[in-house]
Amino acid sequence: MKSGSTRILIGVIMATLACLLGVAFARGQAAQTAPAGQAQRPQMAEEVFTNVQVLKGIPVDEFMDTMGMFAASLSLNCIDCHVAESVDKWERFADETPLKRTARTMVQMVTAINKQNFKGVRSVTCYTCHRGDLRPKVVPSLVVQYSAPVEDPNEVDIPPNAKGPSPDEVFNKYVQALGGAQRLASLTSFSAKGAFIGFETEQTKVAMDLLAKAPAQRTMIVHTRLGDSTRVYDGRAAWVAAPDKPLPLMTLTGGNLEGAKIDAIVSFPAQIKQAFAQWRVGATAIDDKEVVVLQGTNPRQPPVNFYFDGSGLLIRVVRLVDTAVGRVPTQIDYSDYREVAGVKMPFHWTTTWTDGQATVDLTEVQPNVTIDAARFARPAPAPRPN
Length: 386
Hints:
single chain; alpha+beta; Photosynthetic Reaction Center, subunit C, domain 2; outer membrane lipoprotein receptor (LolB), chain A; 12 helices; globular
């Protein structure tokens, strides 16, 4: 099964499974909900899921991203590897299947290859060989050899000291395109309403609310049929409280935590430049239009690419999350910039990752509103659907 139908089916399956999560994860909820003021330890995969044999010792959000890596690398969906009855009975996801046993062997094989040949660096992943196919190809393709290569702007290579504008020049043009430094500084908060379409809404348009406060706090609430799905970044920590997630309150870690931070600082763009220790400038094309790419890096973190069109506006962000089997990408495309209090803001964006896609269309934005600090606090666990 190829990617288009795979993604739709994953969304339908996950929406169906949300009705089963309450019983399956009762023990996870008890451990995940810490008393107020007490540090919250992320749940490990084996503490929440049953029959985890190889992918132990990683947080739940990383475990789910690892499943996304498998899906993207082999163009499979949940019930390709798990038994079909898993759709109706969550506990059946623990059942043994030939593909699950093969996957465990492959994870161990790839880990050994990287340890023996690349000093433990994940240079070889599932995608290295599979490239979207269930079985790696062993015969060269003449079609591929003699056809024009398909360029992926997300795979842009930016060498040190590449020719082109300096990072400061790109940032200055971006700030001017948005309305200028003075107007950006005057925008300190906003609340917004809009529409959301995603797998968790079964591709149905639902209402959403967005709250943001400078320098980097952000809360998004999506009002799904099963209950509210809430994502919060308080400036240091991030959580997801949603009825369709493995835990009613899931702490974000690693690259997912950094991703929540990036989403927050993009709301107040003057913060972007200071968010990374080093910058490189490159160029590529999106839809046959030249774009400038700023790549930000921090120690011990994957790079983040920011794409700017000819007018200087930000049109794409690509960030990576490290998983137990390699890095997975998240792509956010911004468009429909409109002026709010003298500052241009994107009213439309689409987020795409290895096991989901979601689109937001804002309909109303109120600038410089007072927002209760509690709106950026750790949310309550999402109630399980009846």
